[in-house]
Design goal:
Largest sheet: none
Strand content: under 5%
Shape: flat
Oligomer: single chain
Order of helices and strands: HH
Mean pLDDT: 86
Radius of gyration: 23 Å
Distance between the termini: 39 Å
Number of helices: 2
Length: 83
C-alpha cells in the first residue's frame, strides 16, 4: 500500500562498462578530461588488487582443505556439519 506519486526517471538503455570504455578512449585521444584523478584511479586499482589477493587466498585454502579430506568427502561451508 502506498500514498502519493511515484517518479520513475528515464535511464539510458546501454551497458555501463561500454560508456566507461568509451570515456577512457576519449581521454586517451585528448578529446575530453578524465572524470577521475590519477590518485583515485590508483586507489581503485589497489582495492581491486587486495580483493584479488583475498580471493586467491580463499581459493588456495579451499584447495588445501579438499586435498586433506578422504576421497569423496565434501568441505563443510561456514563450519557446518552438513552441506
Amino acid at each position: 500500500y502506498r500514498i502519493g506519486d511515484i517518479h520513475s526517471p528515464r535511464l539510458a538503455n546501454g551497458e555501463a562498462l561500454v560508456a566507461v570504455i568509451r570515456h577512457f578512449a576519449e581521454v586517451i585521444d585528448g578529446r575530453t578530461q578524465s572524470i577521475m584523478s590519477g590518485e583515485r584511479g590508483l586507489r581503485v586499482v589497489r582495492i581491486l588488487e587486495e580483493g584479488q589477493k583475498a580471493l586467491d587466498a580463499t581459493l588456495q585454502r579451499n584447495r588445501d582443505a579438499r586435498r586433506s579430506l578422504p576421497e569423496g568427502e565434501m568441505v563443510p561451508i561456514n563450519g557446518s556439519k552438513r552441506l
